[in-house]
Amino acid sequence: MPDYGHDLLFGTFITPTADDPERVVQLAELTESAGLDLATFQDHPYNPQFLDTWTLLSWVAARTTTLRVAGNVLNVPLRQPAVLARAAASLDRLSGGRVDLALGAGGFWDPIVAMGGDRLTPGQSVDALGEAIEIIRKLWDADTRGGARVPGEFHRVEGAKRGPAPAHDIPIWVGALKPRMLRLVGRQADGWLPSLSYLTEQGIAPANATIDDAAAEAGRDPREIRRLLNLFGGRFATLGRGFLEGPAEQWVDDLLPYVLEHGFSAFILGGDDPETFARFGQEVAPALREAVAAERRTAGTATGRVRPPRALELRRPGIDYDGVPVALAPDAVEPGDRAYGSVRHTYVHSGAPGLVLRPRTTDDVVAAVAYARRQDVPIAVRSGGHGISGRSTNDGGIVVDLGAMNGVELLDRATRRVLVEPGARWGDVAAELTPHGLALSSGDSGDVGVGGLATTGGIGFLGRAHGLTIDHLVAAEVVLADGTVRHVDATHDPELFWGIRGAGANFGIVTRFEFVADEVGDVVLGQFLFDASDAAPLLEGWGSAVENAPRELTSFLTLFPGRAGQPPMALAMVVWADDDVDAAQAALAPFLDLAPVLDRRAQVAPYAALVPAAREHHHQGSSSAEMRSGFLPTVDATTAERLAAMLAAGEAFFVQLRAVGGAVADVAPDATAYAHRSAAFSLNATLSPALVGRAREHWAEVATAFDGMYLSFETGTGPEVLAAAFPEPTLTRLRRLKAHVDPDEVFGTNFPIPPLAISDDDAA
Fold it and tell me: Where is the FAD-binding PCMH-type domain (predicted)?
């Protein structure tokens, strides 16, 4: 039987003895420290001498950091599949994607019945397991709308709500020996997990053939199915005495044919002996990996992830899928992959990319950019996917998703320097800094990714007191279009450092940000709900109150049209940037007289409480609305009346007024690519698709009062958009920089800045 080409996995099979639970956990910890991949535990829920396997898996996952865990195998007759699906997905999310699922159909029926299970015939138990697998997969499919339905004879769900989705694509392995179970593996499972003690070497080839034939009949590639093997009785010795009884070199020789001739790619060692586990991980696993890799190179064995034929049919033209770099291939997502629904869209906009690459390191980003450049499709870059403009996805192109690069580290409390990776969420940053009495102003949602906001501006709840997010950026690591990695700051490549602070998406992918955080303890948060039936005076009065308020106060005011018999309403989020309650009350008082107050509340809270990470793992991207943006020097009566008229006519889903000014204006206009330092307000609105024609006309009237615009809240495109976002001489300076670092416009989908032709004098 040929080698199926899977990467090798090594693990342990640990007896979950209840009378010494700490030793059981220590064996799992040893499994991790020995460099092994997974710890597995037998599952006999009817045996009072054993710990409950699922509880043990949870405990071990909490005590380890990289170790994968699985039952070996879980007793499905006593583990209701719908509940098991939610338990597995939950533990997978809690552990960061470290759960594998191995299932068994049951065999010891007397104790199963004694525990309340139903006695099944061998044929019925196979059918029941097939129904269980179908239920589990459907409940994990959180992207499909509507409840899950499986009208099984032994297990059924009737419109069960789907989710949560696991953190990773959990494989389902099945313990099987007889032909009917083997055919089930071929049809439905991701892996076959027998124990060698129940197999003969002569029986392996027929079993593999049965699985392969069933897979082919089901329209699957047999290589999709990993072959795993439980090993018992192994012992290290100076001299060889038999199979897996001898020195480590002999173990490698003994196991190598099971990979190359029989297709096994995972070996799980039982015996509960710490020394044997340690040597298996430290001596056998790396040597066997090296030997297999050498044999595969010689034989030209196809390796890497195998996708089913139905997924291959969905591949898009212009992308060399077989050429994806080795380091990126395991996490790459294509149409047809189970994870595709969770990575295709953004928070607002729908997308259908042809390939999503998910780098984990700067070197991975370099490889991703080099690969993407060779393809004949557009490239998008995503940090969190929350961006309103929708530029972090596309249709048919490549998305470089930085979500796995999510580290946050306080480098030095004395200097307040913080290292943040682009895929981190601002809620994570706030949670890390708050215990140290620090904060970075960062928008109004903790679910926003760091990379997009930190290269565009960052208008946040602390803006008037502490400035924009980019104003705290002191250094960065940037991958350019040619693969060069630049470390930039005020003295190293200062022009690129200037450009990434406001127009960063045009020049490369920032893989590390270094900020100086502000001293911020608790803040005062006021939340007010107004009757906005008379919206014009509310808007004008709000603008005046903000301009007259101390800079410690920053406010966001959002107005909504009346719906379902309710009057138009306005929600205000007002933050006083310290814990002085008396000063905050005095500053807030003028705002409460502007319109009838329907609800109000104020509290002292840490900044992290204002921006918790909501963890939108599955952006749905269902909106088709247009977003418009503009900077205002003030909110005059004419502007207020025009905005009120748009709301009254239902032409806008909402209108939002964000206060800037204060510390934002302390920075010189030419200090960063964000040049609109004199603005007092950032205004944005979401236009109704049903009335978009009239809404555009009325917005054009509002825009006569603008002095520029903020790209993060704009879906429009064209030269006039760039000219508004980057006033001269900023735009010309950006075009010159673009010509030097990205003349081919590799990064040309996120409000692209056209490069300025470099003259002979410039070139010299």
Answer: 348-520
